[in-house]
Amino acid sequence: MSYTLAAQIRTEIGKGSSRRLRHANKVPAVIYGPGKEAISIVLEHKDVIKVQGNDDFYLTDLTISLDGKDVKVRVQDIQRHAFKPLVEHLDFKFA
After folding, report:
1. In the chain, pLDDT over 90 holds for what percent of residues?
2. What range(s) does the Large ribosomal subunit protein bL25 L25 domain occupy (predicted)?
3. Among 4, 39, 69, 78, which is disulfide-ready with 31 (CB 3.0 to 4.6 Å)?
4. What are φ and ψ of residue 65, in 5° steps?
5. In the chain, where does DSSP find H-type helix?
6. In the prediction, which pLDDT does 54 show?
7. How far apart, in whole angstroms, are the C-alpha atoms of residue 57 and residue 46?
8. pTM, whole model, 2 decimals?
9. Contacts of 32 by beta carbon, 8 Å cutoff, 6+ apart
10. If DSSP codes are grouped into helix, strand and coil, which group holds residue 53?
């Protein structure tokens, strides 16, 4: 199964801006890989929660729709809240 997530490029970087995004029900994330520049993005929390419940979300290539371009990625790391069902940050690697 293939998954597609809509994202926007994140211009503000840091702890404060990430907290503001989380309070607005968004998830800060980053896409990185060898030979390419890292891209900071923001995703909708409800979209992430919906697809991350499937086991193959962690094993297959995902498509991130970023400003009209599709980027193939794989989940590298996911940070969750300690006791709430929240995703706090995602790391993706270029596929």
Report:
1. 74
2. 5-92
3. 39
4. -85, 110
5. 15-23, 45-52
6. 86
7. 15
8. 0.89
9. 38, 39, 91, 92, 93, 94
10. coil
Q: What sign has the CA pseudo-torsion 9, 74, 79, 5? A: positive
Domain boundaries, the chain: 3-94
* Encoded amino acid at 18, one letter: S
* pLDDT, mean of residues 28-51: 93
Question: What is the CB neighbour count within 10 angstroms for residue 48?
Answer: 19
Over 80: is that where the pLDDT of 1 sits?
no
Per-residue pLDDT at 33 exceeds 90: yes
Report strand pairing: 36-44 vs 26-33: antiparallel
pLDDT at 55: 84
Dihedral sign for Cα atoms in the order 28, 31, 37, 39: negative
